[in-house]
């Protein structure tokens, strides 16, 4: 750990980014295999089943996003306390985060389960899609608590720079999911397959095993964080601290999730084929974002630890290098995707020529601007890790409410572009939000935040930030 801390706080920035980013990218690739495996096998059921999963995902993501601010706050504080050399604080933050995330997840899972039919009625999905979508959502909400717990485990381990153990856990669970998916979807022998619901059930089983493994590792305390049963007694001063820090994060992720739901309303108005094309295109977008997400998570850990160690200039250098890597890397991937777009779509849904053609158009319209996603993800990671969650929240609100949905609605409903207007909204949003993000980052005011000096400081910073940004 001493050698690792030296690298993170004073060694080569390129080496530090690669040491963190490569394992995180591998973890993200393996985690995306959950969705890719589901999409691959569900695609063999037909366009209606693909549409059922596509409609369900934004709703479940919204519920998860509402409670994710608490886990985000825990990851940020654990990184900064690790950089400041306060191991006791790292352990305390981890225990309180586990407690809060578990309680929040149970509450949100129950609410989501009960409201699932109303969500689908609001979306106005076709009768052919409704039943499968409802089953998928119900199982997904039952598993929300396990998704929360394991996501929290990964975030805390990443905050202290530990990526090997999460990589091992994800590898095992993905292999298990690869076996369970076709079994639960199509059945075997006397066991009757469950269709779309089987895909959600396979993920539920594997995510629950991953969550249990994470808690056991924390309790054993051999990998940088050690939890004791006495640590789970609620600390209301920390809960208040985490609320002020995490609330903007929850709003940010909820805004992004709500934006996806609003887009789903718009997409659904063009019929099942457009929904399926949107779903396949979104899956491909998630795949190509994996390197940028890994890079941004590495930025989050390094910026958090360096801010905790009192070195904001190094945090700025880390972010600028990552922004350059993200811009160039995703632009290159976008060029490759442009060439092979029809083949990428056909991998997910091979027997629907209309969906293949429409999905390829979606990819080709947006893929050449993917470099902008790399820029904004790295900048937002730096904002979050430094404690400036409000900046990330405002960027999310601007992206979804001011740019993407208005552009998508105007182009698709009030021009001859039709559903192509939705595809163009992604390209426009990528460019505008990337430029705004980087300009805001270059102002440098985010470097003035330090969370490890005083617990009351977070509430003060949050309140002052709201006033200051409102004035601007």
TrEMBL record:
Any one GO CC term of the record: plasma membrane
Chief site of localization: membrane
GO terms assigned for molecular function: antiporter activity; xenobiotic transmembrane transporter activity
Keywords for this protein: Cell membrane, Membrane, Transmembrane, Transmembrane helix, Transport
Membrane-spanning parts: 16-37, 57-81, 93-116, 136-153, 165-188, 194-219, 257-278, 284-303, 324-349, 361-383, 390-410, 422-441
Matches recorded under Pfam families: MatE (PF01554)
Membrane topology summary: Multi-pass membrane protein
Cross-referenced InterPro entries: MATE_fam (IPR002528), MdtK-like (IPR048279), Membrane_Transporter-Flippase (IPR052031)
Name the UniProt record assigns to this protein: MATE family efflux transporter
Source organism of this protein record: Pseudoalteromonas arctica
């Amino acid at each position: 750990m001493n050698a690792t801390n030296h690298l993170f706080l004073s060694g080569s920035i390129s080496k530090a980014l690669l040491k963190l980013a490569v394992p995180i990218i591998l973890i993200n690739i393996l985690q995306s295999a959950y969705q890719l495996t589901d999409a691959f096998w569900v695609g063999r059921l037909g366009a209606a089943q693909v549409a059922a999963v596509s409609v369900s995902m934004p709703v479940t993501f919204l519920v998860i996003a509402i409670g994710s601010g608490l886990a985000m706050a825990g990851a940020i504080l654990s990184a900064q306390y690790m950089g400041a050399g306060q191991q006791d604080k790292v352990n305390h933050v981890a225990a309180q985060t586990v407690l809060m995330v578990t309680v929040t997840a149970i509450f949100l899972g129950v609410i989501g389960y009960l409201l699932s039919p109303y969500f689908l009625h609001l979306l106005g999905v076709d009768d052919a899609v409704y039943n499968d979508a409802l089953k998928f959502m119900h199982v997904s909400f039952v598993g929300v608590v396990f998704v929360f717990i394991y996501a929290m485990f990964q975030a805390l381990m990443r905050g202290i720079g530990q990526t090997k153990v999460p990589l091992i856990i994800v590898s095992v669970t993905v292999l298990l999911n690869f076996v369970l998916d076709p079994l639960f979807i199509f059945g075997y022998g006397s066991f009757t397959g469950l269709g779309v619901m089987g895909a959600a059930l396979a993920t539920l089983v594997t995510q629950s095993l991953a969550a249990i493994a994470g808690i056991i590792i924390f309790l054993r305390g051999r990998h940088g964080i050690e939890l004791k049963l006495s640590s789970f007694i609620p600390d209301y001063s920390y809960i208040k601290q985490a609320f002020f820090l995490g609330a903007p994060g929850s709003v940010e992720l909820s805004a992004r999730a709500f934006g996806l739901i609003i887009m789903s309303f718009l997409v659904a108005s063009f019929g099942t084929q457009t929904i399926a094309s949107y779903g396949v295109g979104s899956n491909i977008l998630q795949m190509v974002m994996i390197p940028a997400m890994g890079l941004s998570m590495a930025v989050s850990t390094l910026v958090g630890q360096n801010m905790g160690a009192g070195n904001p200039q190094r945090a700025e250098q880390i972010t600028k290098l990552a922004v350059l890597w993200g811009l160039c890397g995703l632009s290159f991937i976008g060029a490759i995707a442009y060439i092979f777009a029809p083949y990428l779509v056909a991998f997910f849904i091979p027997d629907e020529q209309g969906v293949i053609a429409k999905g390829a158009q979606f990819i080709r319209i947006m893929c050449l601007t993917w470099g902008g996603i790399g820029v904004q993800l790295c900048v937002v990671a730096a904002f979050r890790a430094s404690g400036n969650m409000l900046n990330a929240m405002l960027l999310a609100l601007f992206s979804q409410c001011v740019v993407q949905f208005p552009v998508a609605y105007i182009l698709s409903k009030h021009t001859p572009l039709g559903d192509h207007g939705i595809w163009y909204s992604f390209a426009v949003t990528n460019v505008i939000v990337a430029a705004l993000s980087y300009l805001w980052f270059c102002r440098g005011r985010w470097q003035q935040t330090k969370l490890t000096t005083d617990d009351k400081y977070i509430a003060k910073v949050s309140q002052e930030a709201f006033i200051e940004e409102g004035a601007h």
